[in-house]
Each structure stands twice: as structure tokens, then as C-alpha cells.
Amino acid sequence: MSRPVIAVDALEKTYGAVRAVDSISFQVDEGEIFGVVGPNGAGKTTTIECLEGLRVPDGGQVRVLGLDPRRDGDALREQIGAQLQDCALPARLRVGEAMRLFASFYAHPLAPAPVLQSLGLADREKVAFGDLSGGQKQRVSIALALIGDPRLVFFDELTSGLDPQARHATWDLVRGIRAGGKTVFLTTHYMEEAERLCDRVMIIDTGRIVALDTPAALVRTLGAEQRIDFRADGLGEDVIGAIRSIPGVGRVERSADHVVAYGPSDRILPPILAALQAARLTFRDLQTGQPDLEDVFLALTGREMRD
Amino acid sequence: MSLRGLAIFTRTQATLYLREPIATFFTIFFAPLFLVLFGLIYGNEPSEILGGRGSMDVTVPAYLGIIIVTVGLIGLPIQTSVNRELGILRRYRVTPLRPLTYIVADVTAYWAMALVGMVLLVVVGKLAYDIRFEGDVLSVLAGFTLSTASFLSMGFVLASVAPTARVAQTLGMVLSYPMMFLSGATIPYELLPSAVQRIADFLPLTYVVKLMRGLWCGKPWSELGLEVLVLTGILVACGVISARFFRWD
What we know:
By secondary structure, chain A is α/β, with parallel strands linked by helices.
């Protein structure tokens, strides 16, 4: 395997008494879409900003494209593109003007017109940033991240605030960027996004790595081919115990009124319903399906990821 | 970054400034409007207290102070802190744009805005009141540039210390408006009571007004040493302070 595009060793960052990032180590390979997922406040943005050189780590080693983001920042910034969380452009700046301005920052930029074209923004060139829809603004921020023809692109919460349709369209754009030979490093708090989009996923929680692998491998670690998922009020330990003792039930996860039981659903569903009925509990939101990254997070942290 | 890059960034900043109607009004149209208004009241008859010059002859160079303080202490701090609040400055920080390029382009754009205001003011003064000009154009431009740079450097300090755009706006206005009236920019220094003159001597804008009026009526630089020294001192001190405390996020 070639040299890693990103190599992080024991990265640490503390704000006052809060350890935002607590000794994180990982590598990102050329040409992959690498995702960092975790709830808000898990340390995703701090991690990405240490890689971009916007923050100084308190400890550990960071190498991006073989460079130290602090010491070799100028050389690094020529080769990366970034979309930042909570970043707008001046409302009266037009899309075409923004593209030409950002192109002028780089030594070897792409031509603005084809980049806008590829993002479906060709007819927006003369429109002021403030007059664009949310999805269009997000596509402009992607265009600006690509204008310098970077080897590595950072997206921080790229799709937050977008409706599902715009989110799916954005995933296709990100896949297109990877298909163009670039490496993508992104953060998200949507588990579905990580699962559908990323080649490898790093789950972090309270500044630590909880798991790091391909989405399929992470789901496989649950060791269950199917799951049953429902909510009920007044769940006691006795009911959970009864469900656990049903033959075929693998693991049972519980978070407040939400229960997930793993196992062959055809076989375990009737006895689970019987156990609930015996306890005179009514259930709701009953679902059966394949386990996904949400289940992985629940299994590893005992908590639910929420949007 | 190339000179071409610097030019593109400067033009973008100036364009954005011109698209803010309020900023444009106060920088470019406010002083000429004021001039017409006060010209209607005072006229431009020669006056003994003004050394044989008319009101408008001394008002035009003094009003340059209004333009300079508006750009330096209101325009730049507000725009800079708004850009910081929007995350635009952080966004620039992840591109190869050098901080020095950003600052040079920004200063050049504001200077150009102030220059447009100056030209319009002089043209209006000439057409409406046939004002007298006894200085030399290059000296006036040099003095104007020093004054503008000095006030823009103060603006960068304001933008550095103000936590939000709202605070920057308030600070800028609180500093600017009294200064406009107490420095001789609106009311000629000679007409101020001596107690106010003593206050005026502590206001940076007073030195802009004295420098510009001096150069306008042909005083040699050698007689304007104090003004040049004060404005250069401010420029250096504020440059050092902003280099140390300027925040990109």
C-alpha cells in the first residue's frame, strides 16, 4: 500500500478542562472516502481542523500529504481543499466572482466554468451567494473546495441542514470527487451517510475512537444477521431478561424505552411479542431489519446517536 | 501570490464595499452632501480668521478627515468583524492566501474607496464654490495616503479587540462621531473654543485635518513635522498591535 495521505498519531487537544480529542491515532489511504462519525461534541471538528492547520494540537503527531500542517502550512494549503462547518460567503458576492477569487489563491487552479458545470451551478454564476438555496450554497462550497485541484478534500458536516434529496445528490457528488482520483476526509453525524458513502468509518465519542473499519465489517462485528427494534414504556429488567433468554436471541441492547434484539427475526419475533404481552406492555415503532451503523454505535457506547 | 492575485482580491473587496449602500453613502456621498449644505449656510467669502480664505476653501481639505475616519474606524472594523463572524476569514485561512496579501489588498481597497470620496468632494467643491487650491497634488495625495493608512491601522486594532461585529460598530461610532466635531473636521479648528482646542490636540483626527489643510494651502512638509510624526507613530503602533492580536476566528 502506498504512503498514507493522512497519518495521525496520538493526537490530543484540550479546551480548558475538556479533552476534545483524547489520543486519537489513524491513517487515511490515497483515494478513499474516510468518514469520522459521532454525536455533536465528539471531537470531529477539532480533529478535522487540526488536520487543516486551523488548530494547533496539544500533543501527538499529524502528517497530511507528508507535511506538518503547522510548519509546512503554505505548501499544504496548495494541495488541499476544504469546506468548513458554519462558513458563509459575503452575501453580495456572486458565485462566479467567488470562484475567480478562490482560483487566484492557488498556483495551479482549475478553470471555474467546468467546475461549476460539474456541480450543476453553470446557470448560477451571476447569482449572489445570499440569494442561493441551502443546497446550492453547499454546492458552491464544494466548488470552492475543488477549484485549487486538491489531492485531498475536507468536508465538515457537508450535508447537515439539507433535505434528504439534496443529501443524496451530494453523496453522488462526493463519490464523483473520489472517482476523479482525490482522497476525501469528511465528518458527519448522520450514521446513514457514513454507511452509504464512506469506504472506512471512524466512530468517535467524547474524543476517543470507538471503532474504525469498513461499514460492512463494523456491522459484522455485531455478529447478527437481523434485528428487531421497538419502543415500549414501563420496560422492566424482568422483561429484558425474558427476551434475553429466548432461544435464538443473540444480544439485546436497551436505551431508555428503545430495545434492539439481534437474531433470526422469523424465529424470535413471536416469543418477544409474547413476552411483552405477558408483561402487559404495549409496544410501538416495531421494525425488523439488517443491523446498521446506528446499531454499532448503540452496541459500542450504550447510547443512541441522534440527528 | 502574484500581483494579479493581489489585484483580484483588492477588486473583490472594493466591489463588495460598493455593494453595501450604507457604507458607500457614508464614504463617498456624505462629505460632498455636507459640503453643499454648509456652503449654503456659510458661503465662500474670504474671512480674516481663516487667513483670507473662504469657509469652503478650508472645509474641503478638513472634510477629507470625515472620509478617512469613516473608512478607517467604521467601514473596516465592521466589515472585518462581519467577515470573521461569517467564518469567511477562517475559510481564507485554509487556502494559500497569505495573511499579508489579505491585509494589503484590504487596505488598498479601503484607500481606493476613500480616494473616490476625496475626488468627488473636491469636484463638488470646485463646481459649487470654486474652491482655491494652493498646494501640490502629489503632496496632498501622499498626506491623504498616510492619514488613511494611519486610520485603517486603528480600524484593524478595533477589529482585533471587538468580540463581535455589533461591538465593532458601536466602538467605531463612539470614537468617530465626537472626533468629527471636535477635531476641526466639521467646524474649523480656529473657531473652536480654546478648551475644545485642548481636547482636539489629543484626537488623532486633528492631525489629519491639520496635515490636509496645511498641504492643501501649500504649506511645506517641514512645517508639518508634528502631524506626520503623530500619524506615522499611530500607524506603527497599531500595526504592531494588530499583528499581535488580530483574530481570524
